[in-house]
Amino acid sequence: MNATKPDAAERARPAGPLAAGRSAGDPADRLALRDLVESYAAAADARDEELFVSLFADDAVLQVRYADLDEPATTVTGAAAMAVIPRALRARYPETFHLVGNHRCQVDGNSAVGETYCEAHHLHLDADGEPADLRMVIRYADAYVRGGDGVWRFARRTVNARWQQVGPVTASALSTRRSV
Fold this sequence. Notes:
With 180 residues, this protein is of the alpha+beta class. The chain has one domain (18-168): Roll (Nuclear Transport Factor 2, Chain: A). The chain has helices at 8-11, 27-46, 49-54, 84-92; strands at residues 56-66, 74-77, 95-108, 111-125, 131-146, 152-168. Pfam families: SnoaL_4. Residues 28-158 form the SnoaL-like domain.
């Protein structure tokens, strides 16, 4: 094992605080945490900076990691700074679609850890000016904290992009032709 550079086996497990085993905790808390992860997807797709920022604790950290890279591609610290994420999406992709799947979490008082599966689509124009979809398979690793107001927020979110694929798109807002 190389101490400075993780090998493929070490990178196989996503980084961040992952829920181990079955979900545990009060069902109301687990439902609130599911709403939090779904709100993240909705805020990203709507480019809603205010909602996006509100989902994070004041000292939260968001990290974006790709399975083929040793170091994080992006790290954002502090709730106010999180507005950079929907802005970056708006600048690069005319439309995105995040479909949230499995969500597991373990609640311990006012803190929790969780893991969420997501398939994300990013509509864009490719190098030839044709509409394309950057599809990413993501496993989010989360640490959550309940604020003094009783609302759950992200204390830490690690976006683990496990793999991606680019493919053609028809019948989109960017399309000039329909395939049907």
